[in-house]
């Protein structure tokens, strides 16, 4: 399974079951104690904290695997075991529908926004159009085909009329975290990433100059897959994500809670 290593929250042998058997642990559909969550890479820090709170407040546990949202959607469509899917954007959910994957009603959880980041001490673009300047030899974005962050970034660049100028010098990351790491490592001069990722990054300066109306709204939906082997835990977890306590955590990491 591509993406970052799964985050184990709670106790049990789910990771072993996933890797060896291809399914989650549990006796029957809906009766498992542990849910497998596929989530956008940008959610990793927040979900790690919320998952721990869920375990102590509600019971049960979750195993979170993060990566590029579209890449995760393709894995689910190919049969990868997952109970809950939380992508960054609605396109991956629409992809699952087109592939015939069944799931419960979509729950829209929170939003995000795009910003530009550069390394501390390095030139910082003062606008999206500044990315076309020669001083920014390499501009990183997430892969538009694999991660909604990349699709949003392309929309923003097209909206500013600079996509063609930047496309030839773009550095493409598999997800938003990899994209940001290109700047941190010096392999890119600037990047367009989510504000939430920039908030927890080391050694980067942030400029909030990407107009929100230059791209589609960044919305994080959640769905419970019909193939879930841990429906009860999955439902409780999605409900908990909308709780005030979880909302405080997501807000701390820069996410914008949406009204139920």
Question: Can you offer a commentary on this structure?
Answer:
The protein is an alpha/beta fold and 260 residues long. The chain has ten helices and twelve strands. The chain has helices at 14-21, 44-57, 69-77, 91-98, 148-159, 163-167, 176-184, 195-199, 231-241, 244-252, and strands at residues 7-9, 34-40, 61-67, 84-86, 107-112, 114-119, 139-142, 170-173, 190-194, 204-207, 218-224, 256-257. The strands form two sheets. Strands 1-3-2-4-11-5-12 form a seven-stranded mixed sheet. A five-stranded mixed sheet has the order 8-7-9-6-10, sandwiched between helices. Strand 2 (34-40), helix 2 and strand 3 form a beta-alpha-beta unit.
Question: What do the pLDDT scores average to?
Answer: 88
Q: What name goes with the CATH superfamily of the largest domain?
A: Periplasmic binding protein-like II
Main sheet characteristics:
7 strands, mixed
Task: State the end-to-end distance.
Answer: 32 Å
Question: How many individual helices?
Answer: 10
Main sheet strand line-up? 1-3-2-4-11-5-12
Helix content bin: 25-40%
Radius of gyration: 18 Å
Number of domains: 2
Order of helices and strands: EHEHEHEHEEEHHEHEHEEHHE
Tertiary shape: globular
What structural category do the secondary elements indicate?
alpha/beta
How many distinct beta strands?
12
The CATH class label of the largest domain is: Alpha Beta
Low-confidence stretches are 5-32
Reported CATH architecture of the largest domain? 3-Layer(aba) Sandwich
Our estimate of the beta-strand percent is 15-25%
